[in-house]
User: Which sequence fits this backbone?
């Protein structure tokens, strides 16, 4: 809400993000005008990954991404004290306090890209695929949240954690591209080293019908375990919070 | 019955020490030196329901750290603390709904929005019923006289107005315990007085337990029947304000106005420590036990227009306690 009070900044931000997204779409169009597929990924499959990533980035910004850049600053300035004193779940209060309403304008463009890709791909069993896609997006968002929670827990000890959050954000940006299409990088490496790099690729595959049920159950289970673990890390790290001098 | 109970509370920090300049920064990357800070060192006290206690001490004495432990923001290194029957750092919502923390140097209000938005948020967080919220808000708004600025962006408010809004935000859930950390800092004397009047009124009307830290002795003198003095993390005094004078002030001040201008400084130095001498007026500090005898001698030896025998100022005594003057 507070962002909307600065109208010019708000509108400029929407314009910048729209142009940025459009430039990636144009880039893919240019690339695919010279080839039919990249390592088995067609133009519309790639655009679907971009749409899914945009949707997830939008959802993340609307919910917990601001946690990434606001949290250590709050600890540094001692503003975290007030949160800690309030009768609310401290993790959720920290992660979901801000809402980037600017991303309300970006999220529909993600949906539009997905719809455009689906219209061209015409996959079979679409209703089932959509259910699978929603479950995969949910577990992907939980995984992203859990990883961010673990990173932010470092702020209780080290306060300044910009380098780690920058790394997280750069990985988020990789999700706009079909990471599984990259040659010479085995899927095993992608899954184990940068799991969030494929976080939008896999739900997209589910949506256009290239999936197995075990993907969904495995993903939901991993998300649940990672969430419990990240919450434990956060609450344990809280013991090291030393507040800021006043 | 004690509302707050603190036994042997310790809070030690490890603090990184860096030499100045670029070379110091590079060295600290490889060989970091730490030292222990005893922010709170074996402090014990109890506070009863409805008490308004002044927590005083120089900068870095451990006052704010103690308040932060009592608010559950910090885990102590060791010790026992209970407030309203709860261990603060367990951060049970049942306890958190019964206290409030106000820090004069920090603010909890949304900067870009009117304060009323923060009040509504706090109402939801503390689950205050609509009717109670309206009643409390009306009372606080009237007490602090802020009706006209409720819908003004917080960043457009003056420091004094903002502090009033901070207090409302902190009190909207009618807490039983109020931790006030330098609530009057930076305010002008008129606003300081208004704040003090409000705190006194709130304490009386709601029988709230209040712990107040302040560097302004006027705050403590006007509000607190009891003071706790803390220095270098250690509790050095806990009792009534008057008792500080009895415990630490071994002298009294004699203020004399002479009727003739023939008094020499050397004459007065024989009587005690001359604090000031601007003829015809002099202020002499004398041992408490000998004060009546010295006063009688002044009246006998000099031509006196006026004489006054008084206790030293509480500010002066506390300043001397902090600067390490030996009162034994």
Assistant:
């Amino acid at each position: 809400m507070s962002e909307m009070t600065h109208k010019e900044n708000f509108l400029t931000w929407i314009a910048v993000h729209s142009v940025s997204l459009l430039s990636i779409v144009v880039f893919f169009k240019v690339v695919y005008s010279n080839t039919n597929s990249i390592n088995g990924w067609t133009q519309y499959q790639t655009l679907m990954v971009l749409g899914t990533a945009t949707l997830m980035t939008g959802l993340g910004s609307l919910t917990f991404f601001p946690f990434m850049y606001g949290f250590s600053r709050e600890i540094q300035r001692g503003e975290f004290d007030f949160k800690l004193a309030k009768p609310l779940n401290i993790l959720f209060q920290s992660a979901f306090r801000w809402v980037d309403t600017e991303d309300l304008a970006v999220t529909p463009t993600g949906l539009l890209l997905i719809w455009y890709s689906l219209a061209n791909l015409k996959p079979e069993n679409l209703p089932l695929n959509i259910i699978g896609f929603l479950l995969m997006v949910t577990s992907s968002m939980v995984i992203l949240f859990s990883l961010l929670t673990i990173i932010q827990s470092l702020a209780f000890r080290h306060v300044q954690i910009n380098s780690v959050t920058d790394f997280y954000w750069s990985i988020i940006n990789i999700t706009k591209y079909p990471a599984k299409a990259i040659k010479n990088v085995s899927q095993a490496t992608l899954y184990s080293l940068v799991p969030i790099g494929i976080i939008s690729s896999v739900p997209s595959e589910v949506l256009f019908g290239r999936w197995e049920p075990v993907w969904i159950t495995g993903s939901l289970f991993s998300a649940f375990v990672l969430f419990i673990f990240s919450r434990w890390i956060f609450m344990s790290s809280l013991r090291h919070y030393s507040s800021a001098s006043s | 019955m004690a509302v707050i109970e603190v036994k042997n509370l310790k809070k030690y920090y490890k603090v990184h020490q860096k030499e100045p300049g670029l070379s110091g920064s590079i060295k600290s990357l490889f060989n970091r030196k730490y030292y222990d800070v005893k922010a709170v060192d074996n402090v014990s006290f109890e506070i009863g329901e409805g008490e308004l206690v002044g927590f005083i001490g120089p900068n870095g004495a451990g006052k704010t750290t103690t308040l932060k432990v009592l608010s559950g923001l910090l885990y102590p290194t060791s010790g026992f603390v209970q407030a309203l029957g709860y261990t603060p750092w367990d951060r049970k919502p049942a306890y958190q709904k019964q206290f409030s923390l106000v820090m004069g140097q920090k603010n909890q209000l949304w900067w870009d929005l009117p304060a009323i938005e923060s009040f509504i948020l706090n109402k939801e967080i503390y689950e205050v019923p609509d009717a109670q919220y309206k009643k409390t808000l009306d009372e606080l708004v009237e007490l602090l006289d802020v009706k006209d600025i409720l819908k003004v962006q917080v960043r457009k408010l003056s420091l004094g107005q903002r502090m009033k809004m901070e207090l409302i935000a902190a009190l909207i859930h009618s807490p039983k315990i109020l931790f006030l950390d330098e609530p009057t800092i930076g305010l002008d004397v008129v606003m300081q007085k208004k704040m003090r009047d409000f705190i006194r009124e709130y304490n009386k009307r709601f029988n709230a337990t209040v712990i107040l830290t302040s560097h302004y002795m006027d705050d403590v003198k006007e509000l607190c029947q009891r003071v706790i003095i803390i220095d270098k993390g250690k509790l050095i005094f806990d009792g009534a304000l008057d008792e500080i004078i009895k415990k630490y002030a071994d002298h009294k001040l004699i203020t004399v106005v002479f009727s003739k201008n023939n008094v020499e400084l050397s004459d007065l130095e024989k009587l005690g420590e001359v604090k000031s001498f601007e003829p015809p007026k002099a202020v002499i500090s004398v041992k408490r036990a000998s004060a009546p005898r010295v006063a009688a001698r002044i009246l006998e030896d000099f031509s006196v227009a006026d004489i006054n025998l008084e206790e030293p100022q509480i500010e002066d005594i506390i300043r001397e306690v902090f600067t390490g003057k030996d009162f034994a």
Summary: Chain B has a mean pLDDT of 88. The first strand of chain B starts at residue 2 and ends at 17.
